[in-house]
Structure formats: C-alpha cells, structure tokens
Specification:
The protein contains 6 helices and 5 strands; from the N terminus they run H-E-E-H-E-H-E-H-E-H-H. The protein is of the alpha/beta class and about 160 residues long. It starts with 11 loop residues before the first helix and ends in a 10-residue tail after the last helix. Bound molecules: zinc ion.
C-alpha cells in the first residue's frame, strides 16, 4: 500500500469490508459478501456492495455510482474485498467491467476460492493495471467463512457452541 490511500478506520479494503458487513448480510447467499470502493488518492469517489443474490456485484455497483456522479474511472483505484469474477452467472463477468474502466490500480482483498473464477486478477494485470492481491486476506476470509468453506470442501460451514 502506498502513502496516499484514503484515510479512515483502516485501509480501504477494510472500509469496503465494513460496508459489506453492514449491508450485504445474508441476502447474498450462496454468493459471497463483497464490497468495493473507487478512490483517487485519499478521496473516496464511489462505493458499491453486493446487496442480494442475483443483483449487481460490488465492482459494477461502485462503477455505476461513480458514473452517476459524472466521473470517469480511468486512472482511479478500485478496492474490492474479493477478486473480480470471470464467468457469466446471474450477471456478466465483473472482470470485463473492471478492464473497461481502465483503473490505474486494483487492490483485491482476497483471491476468489471459487474454481470457476480463474484469472480475475490477471486480466487487468495483463493490461498494465497495477494489481495488488491479498491485501486483506485474513479479514475477508473471516467475512466469507461459509463461502470459503463450501468452495474448498463442498461442505457446509458449521458454527458450534459448547455450554
Ligand atoms: Zn462479479
């Protein structure tokens, strides 16, 4: 991370994670909870989060919010808690929107454990975008515990409580 990151409670990937925790909740299941922030230097320009299953993903929501403000993403930094997806699901692959936006930097909290997501970080990188992967790995893994477990083992995530 360079010295001109947006200021606040922590690095921007933390901010994206906080927003996701507050808003996305469990309505996104079986998708992971994802938050995104677009910033220029220390200034946060737009935010997005994955609000419900089948709805737009966080990166696309943040781009939409940015364009609604009449701003161009070119040269800005995208912070996203999870690697952009690369496959057509309920929505088109986010990596295409991320590449088209011509960000200067893309900071990814955690690589996507979904085997269908291959190269969500490589696409932008191959086009000269500075990509940082795993900027908040442990925190995002905790945020999406059930999703990570299911992607890795195809088993449910169980929370047990002893007396
Ligand atoms: Zn996506």
């Amino acid at each position: 991370m360079s010295g001109d990151e947006p200021r606040g409670a922590g690095p921007p990937t933390d901010a994206a994670g906080d927003r996701t925790r507050r808003r996305g909740g469990w309505r996104v299941l079986p998708n992971p909870k994802v938050g995104a922030v677009i910033a220029r230097g220390a200034e946060v320009l737009a935010e997005g989060f994955h609000a419900f299953f089948g709805g737009p993903h966080a990166e696309v929501g943040a781009l939409r919010a940015l364009r609604e403000r009449g701003l161009d993403p070119q040269g800005t930094t995208l912070y996203v808690t999870l690697e952009p997806c690369t496959f057509q699901g309920k929505t088109p692959p986010c990596v295409d929107a991320v590449i088209a936006a011509r960000f200067a930097r893309v900071v990814i909290g955690q690589r996507d454990p979904n085997p269908q997501v291959d190269g969500g970080h490589r696409g932008p990188s191959a086009r000269g975008v500075e990509v940082v992967v795993g900027a908040a790995e442990a925190e995002v893994r905790r945020l999406n515990g059930p999703f990570n477990k299911q992607m890795k083992s195809n088993l449910p995530y169980v929370t047990a409580k002893w007396p």
